[in-house]
Amino acid sequence: MTRCVFPEPTTTSFEFVRAVLLATGADGFHFIGNTYFNVGDDGGTNVIDADTGIVDDLQIIGNLIVGKFAEGAIHSDKVCTNVVCNYNLVTNLTTGQHAIEFSDNALGFLVGNRVETNAIATAIDNGALSSHDNTWLTPQGADTEAAQVNPTIDSATTILGANDADNAYDSSTVAANSDGSILERLEQVDVDTSANIVQNTLDEKCILASIASITTPDQVLFTVAGGPIKIIEIVGIVTGAIQPIYAY
User: Fold this and answer.
1) pLDDT at residue 202, rounded to an integer
2) Which residues contact 219 (CB under 8 A, 6 or more apart)?
3) DSSP string spanning 88-119?
4) CA–CA separation, 244 vs 66, rounded Å?
């Protein structure tokens, strides 16, 4: 099926529920260079639905798909084989739904697709497809460059995840090494702290004391105790009269 056009219906509720429903064993189906629009309130479920059974040699290439879909615009929950889903432009305007969704472990390639959904988490579910250079953007994202789909999502194998409070990376096997990577050096700091190595810090304070009248030569202004303590400076300010001292 190639170069077909599925226009926005001129009558409300005349939309296709599905443009293509693939039966089990519909091997060798190729959907190439087609155009599909369905942005009205009565959106469909999918453009391509491969949920009935396993399909081999499924090729979905170079299509323009824009609409409101109750599931992924391109959708399969079966282990389809030899899938090629490449260079499609897909927008799903339904909040929380995917643009491309292979929810089981389909095998093949998912390359160079440009998709738009309300959130990157629902951009593409690649199943087990080998994915390369797929990008996501919010619909009509003004003055914004599309983001790479997979590297921005947290996983247990990468420390570079989404900007959230709970990155999924497991650092429990990082070795402590004072000359190693940043993570290894941080682990060494943790080990040092656990071993009760003292890390001294400077706690600087200014203390004020006063005596109204000095009557003896051994009056105490400050009592220094504990420590270690380093006295940096003592400044005295006299606000009263000083008895002159004469030497003969």
Assistant:
1) 60
2) 211
3) -EEEE-STT--SEEE-S---EEEES-EEE-SS
4) 98
DSSP strand pairing (147-148 vs 124-125): unpaired
pLDDT of residue 215: 78
Residues 164-196: pLDDT tens digits? 556 666 677 888 888 888 888 888 887 776 655
Q: Which two tokens stand for residue 63?
A: 């299509």
pLDDT number for residue 93: 93
Contacts of 12 (CB under 8 A, 6+ apart): 40, 41, 42
Mean pLDDT of the chain: 83
Contact criterion met (CB below 8 Å) for 148 and 135:
yes
What are the structure tokens assigned to 207, written together?
């203390």
How big is the chain by its Cα radius of gyration, in Å? 35
CA 151, CA 162: separation in Å to the nearest integer?
9
**Domain ranges for the chain:** 5-148
Distance from C-alpha of 87 to C-alpha of 240, rounded to nearest angstrom: 89
Q: ∠ CA(172), CA(174), CA(178), 5° rounding?
A: 135
Question: CA angle, 106 as apex, 67 and 156 as ends, to 5°?
Answer: 95
pLDDT per residue over 73-107, tens digit each?
Answer: 999 999 999 999 999 999 999 999 999 999 889 99
pTM: 0.62
How far is the C-alpha of 94 from the C-alpha of 117, rounded, in Å? 8
